[in-house]
Amino acid sequence: MNTDNNRTIRARFHLDFGAFALDTGEFSLPGSGVTAIFGHSGSGKTTLLRCMAGLEQGEGYLRFGEDTWQDANRKFLPVHQRPLAYVFQEATLFPHMDVRRNLEYGLRRIPKERRRITPEQAIEWTGVGHLLDRSPVRLSGGERQRVAIARALLTSPRLLLMDEPLSALDIRSKREILPYLERLHRELDIPVLYVTHSPAEVERLADQVVFMEDGRITAIETLAEATSRIDSPLFFDEGPVTVIEANVDHHDDAYHLTRVTFGDHGLWLPRQPLEPGTALRVRILARDVSLIRSAPEETSILNVLPVIITGMEPTGPGKLAVTTETRDGQTLLTEITRKSAETLGLEIGQHVHAQIKAVAMME
Amino acid sequence: MNQAVRRRAPASRGQPTGTPAATVARSRNIAARPALLFPLLLGAMAFSLTLGRYPLELGQLFQALLGQLDGEQAKLVSDLVMEIRLPRVLAAVLIGMSLAVSGAAFQSMFMNPLVSPGVLGVLSGASFGAAVGMVASGHWIVVQLCAFGFGMAAVGIALLIGRIQRQNALILLILGGIISGAFFNALLSVVKYVADPYDDLPAIVYWLMGSLATVDKDTVLLLAIPMVIGIGVIASLGRALNALSMGEDEARSLGIPVRAVRLTVILAATLISALTVVMGGMIGWVGLVVPHIARLLVGPDNRVLIPASAMIGGIYLLLVDNVSRLAFSVEVPIGILTALIGIPFFAWALRNVKRGWG
C-alpha cells in the first residue's frame, strides 16, 4: 500500500484550444493497476493523457507520488525527464532496424542500475520472442503494437500511458493482442493509464475508470462501481454487462472447454490458453442471460446458476434490466422484455435460475 | 543487456523469405561502410593532389608530404603541394562534408528528403553578407566575416519567425526559413544594383557561382577547426535524429530532448554551412544530392548515414573540383558544375521519394 501512495497521481489540467477545452478539475488516480480513461471521440481523453505525459502543456498541476511534474509556478518537467513510457495508436518502429534493435533502443534509454524490467520479461509478456530478427515492415499490426509495447516497457517506466493501442487494429489483431495486455495487467506493478472508447477493453483490462465527456471528468469509479449501475456509460453500446473475476480451474480437452470458478460457482468457457489457477475476467452481456423459474432438466445451455432477484429497472420501452445475485453475492445483470417478466411473475426476492447463453472472453 | 535480448533469439528459426534476413544482414554490416569509405576519401585526396598543370607522381607526392624531397625541384614541388594543392583539396573535402552532413541532418530532422542545408536561409544570408563585404570594403577578412555573420543572422531570423506561434512547429520553422531567405535574396539584389558594375558586381557574381580558386592555407586551417567540430557534433546526434525522423511526439516519449537536439542541429549545421560560403562562395545542391547517394548505400539509419554522407560529400566535391579546375582551359566555377550535376539527380530522386525513403 505504501508504494501505491508513493505513486498516487494528483492533477488538474486546463487547456483551451478554442473549439475544444479540457477542464478536468482536481482529481487523483491510484498509483497501481490499470486506469481506463473512457469517453467518446472528442471527449478529451487523449488530450488528458498528453497533458499527463507533458506532450501538451496546459495550466494546472501534476504530481506523481512525491514528485512534481508540473505546478502553478511555471514548473514543467519536459517529457524526456518524466519516467514514463507512451504507447501511441499506431506503433512507430524504426523501419530500418530489426525488432531486436528497436527493443535495444528502449533499453538504452536508461542506465543499467535503473532497469527494473528485463528484456526477458518484456519479450515474454508481449510474446515477441520469435519476431526479434524480423524487420518491422514485415510485422502485422498487432505484432507491431506488441513490439512497441515491449520497447516502452524496456525503458523501465514508472508510469505507462497507452493511447488507444488497439484502435488502429483489425478485429483479429485485437483478439490476438488482448491476452498480452491482460498478462501485462497481471504482471506489471506500475500504474497504467489506458485511453479507450471500447467498453469491452475497459471491462477486460481496467481496475478503475475515468469517464470523460466534453473535456470534463464526469466520474472516477472502480470497475465494480462502474458496472453496477445500469446507466453506466459503459453500457451505451451493448447494454448492461456483468464482469466476473474468476480463476481457471481445469480444462476439458475432449470438449475443448475451460472450467472457471468464482466463489462457490463455476462456468464453462470455450477453451482458454491459460494455466489452471490463472485469474481472468469473464464478461457476460445482460442480453445473453435469460431467467427461468425452476432448474431446467434439459437445456442446450451449459451454464445455469441459481440466483435471487435483487432489482428491476426499465431500460427502454418494453425492456427491463433485472439485477440478480448468486448465493455468494456475485451480481449478474440480465435484460429481458417486460412481457417475459410479467409472464414469469418475477419479483424482487424471488429465487430463479439464470441461463447464460454465451460466456464471452471478448467480442 | 544486449546479449540478454539476443539470447532469446531463436537461432534456428528459418527466415521466412528474403527480406528480413537481408535486412538483418545489412544492419550488421552497416557500421563498417562509412569506415570503408574513409580510405576511399584518402585515396581521392592523394589522387587529386597529383593532378594539375604540373602533374606529380604518387611517389613524389608522398615525399613532398613527408618533407623528404631533395634536389633542385624540392622547394617547388613542396610549395606546390603544401601551399597550393593541399589547401584546395582540404577545402573541397571540408565543404563537401559540411554541406552533405547539414543536408542529411536537416532531412531527418524535418522528416523531408527534399530539404537542403539552405532551408533556413543560411546560404542567402551568407551571400548577402559576402556581397556587402565586397562593396563596403573589399578586404578579404571583412568579406568573410560578413558572410559568416549574415548567414547566422538569417537563420536567427528564421527561428524567430518560426517561434511566433508558441507551438514551435517544424512547418513554421521552414516558413520562417523561406521568408528569411527571400528577404536576404532581395537585399542581395539591392546590393548588386548599387554595386560598381566594373569592379564589385563581377566579383559578387563570380562569388555566387562558387569557387575554390581563392582559398588560402591559413583560412582553410583556421576554418577547419569549427567545421570539424560542427560535423562531429551532428554525427554524434545520430541516435536522436533517428528518433526525430519518426515524429516529435514519438521522439519525446522515447526520451529525446527534442527542442535541445533541434537547436543543436540547427546551430551546428548553420555554422558549418556559413563557413562553406566563407571558404568557397555559394556551392549548391551538394547537401541535397549527397545524402541521397549515402542513403542508397547505407540506408536511413542516421548513426551511419551522417558519417557516410560526410565521406561521400568529401569525395564528391573533390572530384567535381578536379573537373572544375582541370577539364577546361579556364576554370569553371564549381557551383555551376554542382548545379548541373545536382539538378538532374534531384529530378531522379523525386521519383524515388514517391516510393518512400525508409
Structure write-up:
Chain A has 363 residues and is of the alpha+beta class. Chain A folds into two domains: 2-237, 3-Layer(aba) Sandwich (Rossmann fold); 278-356, OB fold (Dihydrolipoamide Acetyltransferase, E2P) (Beta Barrel). Helices cover 22% and strands 35% of the residues of chain A. Chain A has nine helices and 20 strands. In chain A, the strands form four sheets. A six-stranded mixed beta sheet of chain A has the order 7-8-9-4-10-11, sandwiched between helices. In chain A, strands 1, 2, 3, 5 and 6 form a five-stranded antiparallel beta sheet that branches. Chain A starts with a helix and ends in a 7-residue tail after the last strand. Chain B has 358 residues and is mainly α. Chain B has one domain (86-351): ABC transporter involved in vitamin B12 uptake, BtuC (Orthogonal Bundle), CATH 1.10.3470.10. In chain B, 75% of the residues lie in helices and 0% in strands. Chain B has 16 helices and no strands. In chain B, helix 6 (122-136) packs antiparallel against helix 7 and helix 6 runs parallel beside helix 8. The longest helix of chain B is centred in the N-terminal third of the chain and has 36 residues, at 74-109. Chain B is globular, with a radius of gyration of 22 Å. The two termini of chain B are 28 Å apart. Mean pLDDT of chain B is 86; it is low at 1-28. The A-B interface holds A 53-55, 78-80, 84-86, 88, 92, 94-98, 100-101, 103-107, 109-110, 112, 115, 118-120, 123, 129-130, 132-135, 137-138, 155 and B 1-2, 4-6, 8-10, 13, 15-16, 19-21, 23-24, 27, 239, 242-243, 246-247, 249-250, 252-259, 299-301, 358.
